[in-house]
Design goal:
Blueprint lengths: L2 E6 L3 H13 L5 E7 L11 H6 L13 H8 L2 E4 L1 E7 L4 E6 L5 E5 L2 E4 L3 E3 L12 E3 L3 H13 L5 E5 L3 H12 L3 E6 L10 H13 L3 E4 L3 E7 L2 E7 L4 E2 L2 E4 L3 E3 L2 H6 L23 E3 L6 E2 L6 E2 L4 H15 L13 E5 L2 E7 L2 H6 L4 E9 L10 E9 L5 E8 L7 H9 L4 H4 L16 H14 L1
Parallel strand pairs: 1-2, 1-7, 2-3, 7-18, 9-16, 10-11, 10-16, 11-12
Antiparallel strand pairs: 4-5, 5-6, 8-17, 13-14, 14-15, 19-20, 21-22, 22-25, 23-24, 24-25
Organism: Micromonospora sonchi
Pfam families: Pyr_redox_2 (PF07992), Pyr_redox_dim (PF02852)
Protein name: Flavoprotein oxidoreductase
Length: 456
């Protein structure tokens, strides 16, 4: 009798696991059943704002592999619109509800992959069924918002609540759709993933394209007229709104896992080892936005929900389930985004995180340009480095600038991953040509400045 694997969650981590396991074991050796509560599998949630804005014309462009492809090419029994409601580890069974047809199914497993992702943070005031209020966590969410915008000629005033990645990206998307946009952030800055001095550059750019940014403002409720949202109530002034988009962040989707007795770590994510096995629970694996992982710089457990990590973790789990050997080495917090025409990148620790981890450090900010100053299209770029005071080791980096800015963070991420010092970095042999960089690349300028700061 073939071994049976049940996959809970049909996006990046779950289907990467299933595909990798299938490449190593055929259907006579391993039967795979995947449950997905939405309509789509293996899609790019990060691409949703660009489809909403119209930059990506077709929703299907965001789908890497649809359910039919998984069935036909990988012999995976994908059951969309099925939500797993319970996991019984003693009986080795899952219970799933058919969201369209009704009824429940109970399926046995020998191996379980828990890849339920993350769920949006939703305060009590946001738990409303009034029309015009949307989240953008899943492609189903994005579809509902896009259909609303296409069908409703009326909505002209949008309020985005939350200034993280999804908030600023959705603010830009709605500006491109021609809406008047207000972004409300409870903290003192949008983009809290970078330090305040770098976030100010993001704020200026967003205001430059007409986004009304209100920081230090707490939302306390939504107002309604005829069943539709009409405004956002805050602890200062009410804000009129025809459309409200929630971008308050996410947390690991672990309610089902916790109820089944799977161990959670301090971040709220599921505890796994380097091979993506759930700690202390034989035959159960987890990957993606529902797990916590190790930060390679701070040494602390972190929850970093990104499709890059989910795919890598799923690949590692699938190789191991398939009989091979692979490990996930952790993360360093590298991320990039585009805010209007401004590019933002970060890797490693922010100042606050470096302090919390107990490091003594210096910080430098270097101003440069993306190309040789005389070359057409040269624009400013700001690079910030954080280096350990005694060793000179790079601890973190942030970049804000125009074209060619964001991907430079990859150079810094490789340096950080390999524990390079800023002195080591000054000798890096980086590419140079006037259309692409000054003779001293901005990364090298910042590294030299950090070396000088350490010497002082």
């Amino acid at each position: 009798m073939a071994e049976r694997m049940i996959v809970v969650g049909g996006d990046a981590a779950g289907m990467a696991t299933a595909a990798q396991a299938r490449r190593r074991r055929d259907r006579h050796d391993l039967e795979i059943v995947a449950f997905e509560r939405g309509h789509f599998t293996s899609y790019s949630a990060c691409g949703i704002p660009y489809w909403i804005s119209g930059l990506v014309p077709d929703r299907e462009q965001l789908v890497a592999r649809d359910p039919a492809t998984h069935r036909e090419q990988f012999d995976i029994d994908v059951r969309i619109r099925h939500e797993v409601t319970a996991i019984d580890l003693d009986r080795r069974e899952v219970l799933a509800r058919d969201l369209d047809g009704g009824g429940e199914v109970r399926e046995r497993f020998d191996t379980l992959m828990y890849a339920a992702g993350a769920v949006p943070i939703k305060p009590d005031w946001a738990r409303s069924d009034m029309a015009g209020v949307f989240g953008v966590q899943t492609l189903d969410d994005g579809t509902a918002l896009r259909q609303w915008l296409d069908a409703e000629p009326g909505p002209r005033r949008a309020v985005v609540v939350g200034g993280g990645y999804i908030g600023v990206e959705m603010a830009e998307a709605l500006v491109l759709r021609g809406l008047s946009v207000t972004l409300v952030e409870r903290g003192e800055q949008p983009m809290s993933t970078v330090d305040p001095d770098m976030a100010r550059l993001v704020t200026e750019a967003m205001r430059g394209v007409g986004v009304d940014i209100r920081t230090g403002v707490r939302v306390i409720g939504l107002s309604e007229r005829d069943g539709r949202v009409s405004g956002v109530e805050t602890d200062t002034d009410p804000i009129p709104a025809d459309l409200v988009v929630l971008g308050l962040g996410v947390r690991p989707n672990t309610a089902l896992a916790e109820a089944a007795g799977l161990p959670l770590g301090p971040t709220g994510g599921i505890r796994v080892d380097r091979r993506m096995r759930v700690t202390g629970v034989p035959g159960v694996w987890a990957a993606g936005d529902c797990v916590e992982t190790l930060h390679r710089v701070s040494g602390m457990p972190v929850h970093v929900p990104l499709g890059t990590h989910a795919n890598k973790q799923g690949r590692v789990a699938g190789i191991n389930i398939g009989g091979g050997y692979a490990t996930f080495a952790g993360v360093i917090g590298t991320a990039v985004t585009k805010v209007c025409d401004l590019e933002v990148g970060r890797t490693g620790l922010r100042e606050q995180e470096a302090l919390a981890a107990g490091f003594e450090f210096v910080t430098v900010i270097a101003e440069s340009t993306n190309r040789a100053g005389y070359y057409p299209g040269a624009r400013p770029m700001t690079v910030k480095l954080i280096a350990e005071r005694t060793s000179g080791r790079l601890l973190g980096a942030q970049i804000v600038g125009w074209s060619e800015a964001a991907k430079r963070i990859d150079t810094l991420a490789v340096a950080l991953w390999n524990k390079m010092t800023v002195d080591d970095m000054t000798a890096l042999d980086l590419g140079y040509a006037p259309p692409y960089a000054p003779v001293w690349d901005p990364v090298l300028v910042a590294a030299r400045k950090a070396v000088d700061a350490l010497a002082r």
